Amino acid sequence: MMDEAKDRERETWSSYTGFILTAVGSAVGIGSIWRFPYMVSSNGGASFLFVYIIVLFTFGLAFMVLELVLGMRYRTSIVSALSRIRSRFRFIGLFMISVCIAILSYYMVVLGWILAYFAMSILNSYQGFEEFIDTWYPLASYLIVVVVNYAIVKSGLRSGVERFNRYGVILLFAILVCLALVGLSMDREGLGLRYYTEPDNDRLLDPYVWSSAIGQAFFSLSIGLGVLVTYASYTREHRRSVITTSLIVIGSVLTVAFLSGLMVFTMVFANGLDVQGAALVFMAMPKIVSNIEHGYIVGMMFFLLLLIAGITSSISMLQIPVSALEDTFRFTKGKATMLVTLVSLLLGLPSALSYSPLNLSIFGIPVLDAFDWIFGTIALAISATLMVVAVAWFMCREEVMEQVNMNSRLRIPSRLLDIARILLPSMIIATLLKILVFV
Predict the structure, then answer these.
(1) Which of 14, 64, 122, 304 is the most core-located residue (most Cβ within 10 A)?
(2) What is the pTM assigned to this prediction?
(3) How many CA atoms lie within 13 A of 315 on its CB side?
């Protein structure tokens, strides 16, 4: 086993603000913009929103605290950090890295579609999605996204990842607020607003709604990939507790999700359209912008919003395996970034070709859809379960609680760790079983 990189050799964030903005950027991906509204519409409207808020500040908060504790305590990436708990847990870290690369490979394909539609919005000439995937544009846009991700991560932690998130996340919030206000101005009868804010009490205790909310938390908080572990490992000593840090990130994620839902429901209800994931992005939005004043600007803002959200998440997924290669296997930044980029590129080609004239598929299912099911659903849940068990059950209790209560005015009792040991894995497994049963 090769020696791990020493702390003095590792990069650090330029400031606590830079760390927070980057952590928020990693969590706020395209799933928070269009998947969240789709989940709301599929699970009781405002009832799902209320349940989701509860899940974020319980399940999500507990999981985030454990990830930050692991990263800040050992100040190294996911493979090395888990190895310090138990040497045999190294395989968990390697499994998490593999899942991360697999998800990144097809995530960049979808991000390429968004890049293409952003270009269409600039030209004010939209193609139908079926027409679009019948060309080689999806493959070309995918390759461009791969190059963009490589360039940002290779530039370094501060100069690349942090700098992009500093400007990108602030711009994302600004665009989202503007589009939410546009949606409210369009929803003159208040149909979308009422649907989004008036819960159906009968659905509040529905187990399916709760399990769906937990599933959405996976996407919203980047759970199970080791993102926050790695990002937290780059922090220097600061005066904020992990509880405060977690609450800031969760509050930001919730704000983005709420504004996204507000934007979507007011716009689609005002135009009499359905709320659906892919249809919303690539079919419904071109229809909406064609029917409103200044639609050209709204269209550009919407696809720019998605593009920024997608890139902030994709560079985090690239940074995680790069950090592991640097810390555990002593790769240089350039070699590590190049290797991971090439692997994800090759792995993503079948997904890109599945929505192209080749229509590449597995047993009649597009490769991208199959990858999303295998890695984005099943493997991700397994990864999250293994990590939380390793940290909550096998990391030294005193080390965990010392890190949790560091710089905190409120002393968290250690018995809460016992609760997390049982509840977190149980909730993840229950959510996975729900997905498998209702497939």
Answers:
(1) 64
(2) 0.92
(3) 31
Residues 6+ apart with CB under 8 A from 8: none
* Whole-number pLDDT of residue 276: 61
DSSP 284-329: IHHHHHHTSTTHHHHHHHHHHHHHHHHHHHHHHHHHHHHHHHHHHH
CA distance 317 to 322: 9
Distances (CA, A) of 434 to 131, 202, 427: 35, 20, 11
CATH number of the structural domain spanning residue 393? 1.10.4160.10
Residue 7 has pLDDT above 60, yes or no: no
**Residues near 340 by beta carbon (within 8 Å), at least 6 away in sequence:** 101, 318, 321, 322, 325
Extract the tokens encoding 290.
């064609």
Strands 361-362 and 365-366: antiparallel
CB 143 within 8 Å of CB 108: no
pLDDT, tens digit (0-9, with 9 covering 90-100), for 33-92: 878 888 888 887 889 999 999 999 999 999 999 999 999 999 999 999 999 999 999 999
Q: Which residue stretches of 187-294 are H helix?
A: 191-197, 207-221, 227-233, 242-270, 277-279, 285-290
Q: What is the DSSP letter of 281?
A: I
Looking at the structure of the chain, the number of domains it has is 1
Q: Please check whether residue 288 lies inside any domain of the structure.
A: yes
d(CA 88, CA 83): 7
Residue 1 lies in a domain: no
- In the structure, what pLDDT confidence band is assigned to residue 9 with cuts at 50, 70 and 90? low
Note whether 304 and 118 are within 8 A (CB).
Answer: yes
Q: Which domain holds residue 410?
A: 7-437
